[in-house]
Amino acid sequence: MLEALEASDGFLSAQQLHATLREQGQRVGLATVYNRLRILADTHQVDVLRTESGEALYRRCGAQGHHHHLRCRRCGSVQEVESAEVEAWAHSLAKKAGFSDISHTIEITGLCEKCHG
Amino acid sequence: MLEALEASDGFLSAQQLHATLREQGQRVGLATVYNRLRILADTHQVDVLRTESGEALYRRCGAQGHHHHLRCRRCGSVQEVESAEVEAWAHSLAKKAGFSDISHTIEITGLCEKCHG
DNA sequence: CAGATAATGAGAACGGTTACAATTTGGTAT
DNA sequence: ATACCAAATTGTAACCGTTCTCATTATCTG
Fold first, then answer.
1. Average pLDDT for chain B
2. Which has more confidence, A65 or B17?
3. CA of A22 to nearest chain B CA: how many angstroms apart?
């Protein structure tokens, strides 16, 4: 299952992943896909993000640590993104406001070169 | 309805808002709340974000332009946040990657001073 | 091989959201 | 006032992604 996620260059929904596995001939139930994805997400082996419509998308990321994504709204292709400055900014800002247990998410979206037009 | 949203200092779900309006004695249908919220969101009169569980939360923001939020995971209280540097970073990064029609979201979450402990 | 344990998966249930059709509301012309 | 029309509103049913249930199947262990 992780292989199928890695094979895809973008984020997949649980149902897309299920369909993909089925097409490959694997007899796997949708419930199992959801269960395993949840475990993988809980253990930070895959990244999760939410579509505008509320759907959950999953991806096996190359980068191990904390990072963010630049994603094409049309084709779904994804690049990983990092910036120590921005990390520091987010953290110090929250700290100044008295927050603890700080985390953050950053999503940059747009139309990639291929999809533009 | 906008008043009810403004009265709340944090984000409200559509259903919470509906309940609030009902408690105030207004006879309003859930469908209407959803409809009007959608219109308000489409016209950028309210901000929308998605819970981890996929639920949509709405807020009438003080700041008019583009901005982000620092939010307490426990009590839901929200502060508005801006940073020209981060805006520029996100935009130039996407542009360098060949992206157009660029947008981004940043959410910083944690436990606020009151809720910490 | 037997028995216990965990993983699996088809289908039901669930919760937030949207679509639909009927009703109400508000305005305008008669 | 009254009749008429268009837009807004509303309860309910449908929808869709996700989670739960629990019978079945696979995997360990001795």
1. 92
2. B17
3. 26
Measure CA A85 to chain center. 22
- pLDDT, tens only, B18-29: 999 999 999 999
**Section B41-63 average pLDDT:** 91
Contact residues, chain B, for A66 at CB < 8 Å: none
A113–B99 CB contact, under 8 Å: yes
d(CA A109, CA A112): 9
A36 touches strand D (CB under 7 A): no
Q: CA A96 from chain center: how many Å?
A: 29
For nucleotide C8, the protein residue with its alpha carbon nearest to C1' is A32
CB < 8 Å from A in window 30-69 of B = 50, 52, 54-56
Select A1-62's CATH number: 1.10.10.10, 1.10.3720.10, 2.40.37.10, 1.10.357.10: 1.10.10.10
Domain boundaries, chain B: 1-62, 65-117
Nearest CA in chain A to B72: A99
CB contacts of A112 in chain B (<8 Å) are: 97-99
Does residue A24 surpass a pLDDT of 80?
yes
Q: Which is nearest to A83 in space by CA: B87, B28, B34?
A: B87
- How many CB atoms within 10 Å of residue B35? 11
Does residue A117 surpass a pLDDT of 80?
Answer: no
Do the Cβ atoms of B41 and B50 come closer than 8 Å?
A: no
**Fold annotation for A65-117:** Dna Ligase; domain 1 (3.30.1490)
